[in-house]
């Protein structure tokens, strides 16, 4: 079969099998030092949107134009976790900082923007995280920082105060 691969002793097509169902890679299995993909049928074709240029499957309701860092993060991280991190971060800042040093409360939108920028900084290597907002002529312009609408100072505030645990009965800092 042209363009097919052997998986489990049977030749399968990359795009469809005999019944016409779409095959998607579900697991990667190592056999004798070579990598083979097992393909399993995806029965609900209306539930997926295949973006062939990017070579990944987007959720059913999102086009490639809507696939921003924030939108993709909301699919990967549960809303309950984002809300809990925002609550714990606000509790930590109330405990750690006096009233005149605190900024406005950290919202769930701030946490999503923060995680999107952290993810971006993991992909785009910069000497300093502040360079993401730099306007220096010799540094590239990062559209994510301006589109994200999180200022450098707000990012650093969340960076310094983010909390994933409940402090409980800890003593106040000196």
Salient structural properties:
5 helices; two-stranded antiparallel sheet; alpha+beta; 2 domains; 174 residues
Describe the protein.
The protein has 174 residues and is of the alpha+beta class. It has 2 domains: 5-65, no CATH class; 72-161, no CATH class. 33% of the residues lie in helices and 19% in strands. It is built from 5 helices and 6 strands, in the order ββββββααααα. The chain has helices spanning 69-76, 79-96, 108-123, 143-148, 152-161, and strands spanning 5-7, 10-12, 22-31, 34-42, 48-51, 56-59. It has a two-stranded antiparallel ribbon with strand order 1-2. It has a two-stranded antiparallel ribbon with strand order 3-4. Helix 1 crosses helix 3. The longest helix has 18 residues, at 79-96. It comes from Odontella aurita. Residues 70-169 form the PiggyBac transposable element-derived protein domain. This is PiggyBac transposable element-derived protein domain-containing protein.
């Amino acid at each position: 079969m042209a363009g097919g691969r052997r998986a489990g002793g049977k030749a399968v097509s990359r795009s469809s099998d005999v019944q016409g169902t779409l095959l998607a890679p579900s697991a990667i299995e190592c056999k004798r030092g070579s990598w083979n993909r097992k393909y399993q049928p995806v029965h609900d074709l209306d539930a997926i949107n295949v973006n062939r240029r990017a070579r990944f499957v987007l959720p059913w309701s999102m086009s490639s134009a809507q696939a921003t860092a924030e939108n993709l993060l909301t699919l990967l991280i549960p809303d309950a976790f984002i809300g809990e991190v925002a609550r714990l971060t606000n509790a930590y800042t109330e405990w750690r900082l006096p009233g005149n040093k605190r900024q406005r409360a950290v919202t769930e939108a701030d946490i999503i923007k923060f995680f999107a920028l952290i993810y971006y900084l993991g992909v785009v290597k910069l000497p300093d995280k502040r360079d993401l907002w730099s306007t220096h002529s010799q540094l590239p312009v990062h559209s994510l920082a301006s589109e994200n609408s999180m200022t450098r100072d707000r990012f650093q505030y969340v960076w310094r105060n983010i909390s994933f645990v409940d402090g409980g009965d800890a003593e106040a800092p000196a």
